[in-house]
Design goal:
It is built from twelve helices and 17 strands. By secondary structure, the chain is α+β, with helices and mostly antiparallel strands. The chain folds into two domains: about 270 residues, FAD/NAD(P)-binding domain (3-Layer(bba) Sandwich); about 150 residues, Elongation Factor Tu (Ef-tu), domain 3, CATH 2.40.30. A hairpin with a 6-residue loop joins strand 12 and strand 13. The C terminus is likely disordered.
Length: about 450
């Protein structure tokens, strides 16, 4: 079995297949050929945020994590081992996380890791998990195979700042609604005057140039901060700079807040939550200096724009992630049109489960669409091809509940139904699942 791409989807898929007794050839082009966003040669390197979103078991992202854990997910176990405080979210120390995944792959006796760029889709059963930064050569192969004119949109990365360079007298530690340990997030509060000046600076900032046809190709859930600013003066205050759930020392709520989340357990590097940007680098330093406490900020990494590659999944993929025109080829990860680290890994896991059953002579049954794993495939195969865009896991992708449930109980109802239906699926398929302890609802959507 050949898997192209050593990101989250490819690593998860390789690990799951190998644990099912399937020998795997895993192809990863780094460091022979790097990408505009990666910085290391480690597998499963996180290039944007360091968060895998909410860990609340009744949140859709938390539910997906627990379904993956029932299959022994490498990505989720590595994330928990490398976790850093992040309130109700599961965030990781990037280096520890990537090291954990790399070690698990390179030491597995049934996985052979090859550091080379795969220029063509090889013969036989293959999983293409090349992610949002698919090389031009392989992207051209997919264009030819799928007869698609365009396979990409643009994504942006948030800056990372050195905490030692900040004026801590202007900042305070707190998680929204006092969740977490109390020092999971560092907050830069803004008055209305400071916020309006910052908002105007975003509007005036010089941006990295995109061609006209590319300007509408940003993923809605990861828009650059300056793009959000253009939607209205209060858009940021109801988005990444929302002050709800936070209080100043005098008990009042700030007008707006910039939140910083820890990048590593060393507490030295923090990323600006929700501050993806395509401002030019000198402009980033000028504009971000307007954030209280950032007058002398030193950035470990500035934000940048990079190309993300994905296919029109409803037009080309079946529920098993196979390309309809060539069923021996499967796509995994963000190239399918799922959005996010968690969702990418989940697609790799799903493919491995299906392939494992198929190679053992069984007839695989798709995950029920009422489960988080099945809802992802439902989005990829049942969405309107004319309006298809990448999406994170959310309950809008699930079938509606069969009965009316009070709003405050809906998330638990979705989660309870998903667990019940996954148990029935495992019994029908003869797949043994691990038990994951039920947790109280205590998370937060990051």
């Amino acid at each position: 079995m050949t898997i192209i791409g050593g990101g989250l989807a490819g690593s998860e898929c390789a690990f799951q297949l190998a644990n099912r007794g399937v020998p795997v050839e895993l192809m990863e082009m780094r460091p022979v050929k790097s990408t505009p966003a990666h910085q290391t040669d480690r597998l499963a390197e996180l290039v944007c945020s360091n968060s895998l979103r909410s860990d609340d078991p009744f949140h859709a992202a938390g539910l997906l994590k627990r379904e993956m854990e029932r299959f022994g997910s490498l990505i989720i176990s590595a994330a928990r081992e490398a976790a850093v405080p992040a309130g109700g979210a599961l965030a990781v120390d990037r280096e520890r996380f990537a090291d954990r995944v790399t070690d698990a792959i390179t030491t597995h006796p049934l996985i052979q890791l090859h550091r080379k760029e795969e220029m063509q889709i090889p013969d036989g059963e293959v999983v293409v998990a090349t992610g949002p930064l698919t090389s031009d050569a392989l992207a051209a192969q997919l264009v030819e195979l799928l007869d698609e004119d365009s396979l990409y949109f643009y994504d942006s990365i948030a800056p990372i700042v050195d905490i030692e360079s900040l004026d801590m007298q202007r900042l305070f530690w707190a998680s929204r609604y006092d969740k977490g340990s109390g020092d999971d997030y560092l907050n830069a509060p803004m008055t209305s005057r400071e916020y309006l000046a910052f908002h105007q600076a975003l509007l005036d900032a010089e941006l990295a140039t995109l061609r006209d046809f590319e300007k509408d190709l940003f993923f809605e859930g990861c828009l650059p901060i300056e793009e959000l600013a253009r939607r209205g003066v209060d858009t940021l205050r109801f988005g990444p700079m929302k002050p709800v759930g936070l209080r100043l020392a005098d008990g009042t709520r700030p007008y707006a807040v910039v939140q910083l989340r820890r990048e590593s357990l060393a507490r030295e590097h923090f990323n600006l939550v929700g501050f993806q940007t395509r401002m030019k680098w000198p402009e980033q330093k000028r504009v971000l200096a307007l954030i209280p406490g950032f007058q002398n900020a030193e950035f470990v990494r500035l934000g940048q724009v990079h190309r993300n590659t994905f296919v029109n999944a409803p037009r080309h993929l079946d529920t098993f992630y196979r390309i309809r025109q060539s069923p021996r080829v499967r796509l995994a990860g963000q190239i399918t049109g799922v959005e996010g680290y968690l969702e990418s890994a989940a697609s790799g896991l799903a493919i491995a489960v299906y392939l494992g059953q198929q190679l053992q002579g069984s007839d695989p049954e798709p995950f029920p669409s009422t489960t988080a794993l099945g809802a992802l495939a439902r989005h990829l195969t049942e969405s309107d091809p004319k309006t298809f865009k990448p999406a994170n896991i959310n309950y809008g992708l699930f079938p509606e509940l069969a009965r009316r449930v009070p709003k405050r109980q809906r998330r638990q109802a979705f989660a309870d139904r998903a667990r019940h239906d996954l148990d029935l699926w495992s019994a029908r398929q003869g797949v043994e699942l691990a038990e994951v302890p039920a947790l109280d609802e205590s998370g937060d959507d990051c």
